[in-house]
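Key idea: predict the complex, not the pieces.
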Amino acid sequence: MFKIIQQTLRTGIVTTGYPATDADVTPPFRGKPVFDFTLWRDARSAADVCPTQAIAVRDQGDQRTVTVDYGRCVFCGLCAEAGSGEAVWITRGFELATRDRSRLVLTAQYELNPDGTQHRLLKAPDSDTDIETAGRAAHAEIRKLLGRSLAIRQVDAGSCNGCELEIGALNNPIYDIERFGIHFVASPRHADMLLVTGPVTRNMELALLKTFRATPEAKVVVAVGACGISGGIFGENYASLGGVDKVLPVDVYIPGCPPRPQALLHGILLATGRLAEKR
Amino acid sequence: MRAERDDEIYLLCGSPDVRAVVGHLRSEYEARMVTVFAEDRRSEEGVFYNYYVLEQRGNPQYLIVRATVPAGDPQFPSFSAELPAVNWQEREIQDWFGLTATGHPNPRRVALHDNWPDVHPLRKDFRMDTALPHFEGERHIYRPALGEGVLQIPVGPVHAGIIEPGHFSFAVAGEPILYLQLRMFYTHKGTEKLFENLPIHRAVFLAESISGDSSFSHGTAFCQAVERAAEIEVPPSALMTRTILLELERIYNHVADIGAIATDVGFAVANAHASRLREMLFTLNEQLTGSRLLRGAVCVGGVRRAWQPGQQNTLRAAMDAFAREFDDLIAMIHSSDSTRDRLERTGILRPEKARDLGIVGVGGRASGVDLDVRRDHPYAAYGQFSFRVPVYQAGDVWHRMQVRIDEVKESIGMVRTATEQNLYGAHCAAPQTIPADRCAISAVEGWRGEIIHWIRTGPGNRLERCKVKDPSLNNWPALVEAVQGNIIADFPVINKSFNLSYSGTDR
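Result:
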């Protein structure tokens, strides 16, 4: 017993200061890909290598629509390597959680050259996903309900278990989510929040619905990871229904494949309206 | 008979002879059945094929019996009665392809739940985007457990912790478990069918999503299969890098499991340290590959990134720090008599049962099954290493933990040796066209055990078929066996000592 205490003392405090301090993210980390739509000369090569069609190109006559969907992105970094020149680069950004699914999608329109490359940008995307400003009033209400302590029921509705590893890491001494009064509970009847990973499989749809119904009001649903948001690489097929919002109303989306623990924490705090206070 | 390559021999046989041929190989050569799977070749050759992959101790070759199954008479003889190891795999063939396993002792559905309509998704004429009706009716009828005082406890599919879904039906008499029935495949998401719809460079990422905690192992198994099919020579330093990353994946999972086993018997401090150590390794993974789970690190032809100056030192320093802390962790666990008391003789899987059920990996080695793909069919750079494969006979939770402890130590040694090599050579072979209609098998010893990928390439950089076998598929019956007679309160720790992947099973 004495040795165990000694070892604990020797280890000291390992808990991260995030989100009060910046996250400890190492330089090689592949986070959010960023696009300079004005510089982008040809989005086709990036669309071709993208494993989940997060980058998609649609040509109509001499015009091209390019969409970038962070809700599908698996952060592989291939788009920045696929002959995109200076137009695409990978950052260490990971705070991508949002209440509004449409904020994860960027759409740009181009006029094309005869050879199929992009001649000039006709319409730049409306917004970027960095800052979450929508719904301040709703924040206050949710914060009143859930701001001081939060019970989360995690539901795997079909994931590959990658998201579960990172959600599990929230309980380790580094991220120590209990310091926010947030804890994971065994029953949906004790839960304020469902933290759902996907894609939602045909075989899990009913179990997910029953879990949702068993959760008392007021409840929030958070969709985790590319698969939870959009079906990810699995998409929609005979066995997969796609993202969580195909089955349940989703309050917050947390992109990533899987989202790192700080990204999960960011999304959970966003969902409880506690983010502004922490930054 | 045809040798696709030196270590991959195909033996063609007609449907009526398969029992005799496979039976002979098993009895005369003591061949072990690695996996059984099917392929729909009706539009090209007018038949289905069943593949029986066999290996023989001390022989690095895979012998693959390819047996025709006539399209007009879609049935094949079952081996499950004498070889329980293929029970689920034969039933999968029934479900996916609509071929009947004649003589199967329990021919009920396994992969498709009972309520699924009469479809066979891996048949070529079944469309990927087929819309099926929502769930209705019965998923699975469990055998009733009868007797005075016998109680049936349903658990799942949504479990109490942060884990994957599956349904367990326990029959208990008081505290001891009489019988456990499993219903898996809740996370089935059409993975094998999806492989047939994706170009190969995208399919690598699908392979990484078969089981997230084995991203690099499954990704490597897949890339190896493509490289073997297309005769791509992977540069030596890329093979060494793969070996390093495969071992890092093993270490991070093993140390997490050691902590989880400790916490399931109430030793939470040990788990706090273990989860801190896993975090050290996640950070190291990120420093080496940009991804905490080693995602997007492997590619067809090698690895995505060359080593950067300083990375080798980072790796060496991290391994030194980890090795010291790991020893402290194990000393702490070993100093706790109550932990040992709870884990010894708990959840015993006897060696003869493990052999019959075809148990592989950690669960097998703790029960006398001396298999390790790294040694038996060397891949990546494993041929250059000598390492010990720990094997115990006791088959309890304690020894499944001990196998992990021993393996972590061996892995640390391997990674340290590898960091002394010159890693600065080419990191990837030049991209090339993948020729059509080539078959190849690939095996990787993931941290759970033997991972098999088998592919047939198609035209246009695509696949005709990709069979994936995660070790979890073999090993679920081990859990059923190991929990019998144990108290239900010990189920979590027994389950954790196997720590099988639901997603890897269900795909």
